[in-house]
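Entries read chain and fold; for instance:
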Amino acid sequence: ATFLDGLDTMDLEEFRSVLGHAKYSVPGLMEVTEAAYNGTLGIKQGEEDEMGMGAVHFEECLVRVCALIAKQWCDEAELPGSTRAADVLSNLVGKHILVYCNKLHQLDFAAELAKDGIPELWELCHGQLKRVFSLYATAEAGTALTVDDFMSIMKDLGLTGSQLTPPMLVDIFTMTQVIVAGSSQNETMSIDEFEEALAACAIYRDPSPYLALNHKIQEFITASLITSLSSIKQRKSYGGAEAKRGAGGAEDAEAPVVKVLEMGTE
C-alpha cells in the first residue's frame, strides 16, 4: 500500500516521504532518489510516471538508492567501484527505516508544526528560545545540545516529573533527530530540532484532545519556558553586556514576546 493515500502503488514523492520520516539525509538525495526511482520503473528522461511502484519495486528502489550513494562516496574517496553499497543499505534499512518503522505509520509530527500559526509562534519567540539553547549548548562549539544538555534545560525549568520523565525526554530527543547518513546517531540537537522537541514536551504536559496543538505549544512556551528565563539567567552567564542589564532588564526583554503571544489567543 502507498505510504500516503492508501492505494497499491507509491510515487516518487511518497518514496521520498518514507526516507524523510525515517530521518535519512545525504547530500544530493533528491537527485539520487529520482534516478533510483526512474531506473527501477524503466522511466526514460522526459517520460511521465503513470504506474507508480509496488512493494517489490520499493525494495529494488532502496537497493538502487544505496548503490548510487555508495558510488558517489567511492568516487569522492577515489575508491574502486561501489564497495560500500552493502554498508549503505545496512545503515538505511537497519538504522533508519526499521528503527523508525512505527513512526512511518504515525502522524508526521513535523508537518503538523507547519500549520495553524505555529511557524509564526516559533518566529515570535525564536530569540528567547535561541538564548536558552545557547546557554546550555555544549556540543559542536556551543551550537548544539547533547541529550544531557536537553535534560538539564527541562530540569532547570522544573518540567521533569511524572509527565516528563527522563526516559520520555530521551525518546523525544531521539525522535527529533535528522541523522545524516554516515554520521553518529542521536548525539546532538540543533535549534530546529529543539523547537520540535519543545512542541513534543508541550503535548506530554497537556495531552488533552480538546485543546489545539498551537495553543498547547503557546501555553507551554509562555508559561513554562519564557517566564522562567530570568531564573535561568541567574544561574547561567550571558556575558558582560547581558550581566550589566541585570535581572530587571532581562525580564523586560522577554515581556514583549509574551505579550504578543498572549494577544494571539484573543
The first helix runs from residue 12 to 21. Residues 1-7, 179-185, 238-266 have pLDDT under 50 and may be disordered. The beta strands are 24-25, 179-180. The first strand starts at residue 24 and ends at 25.
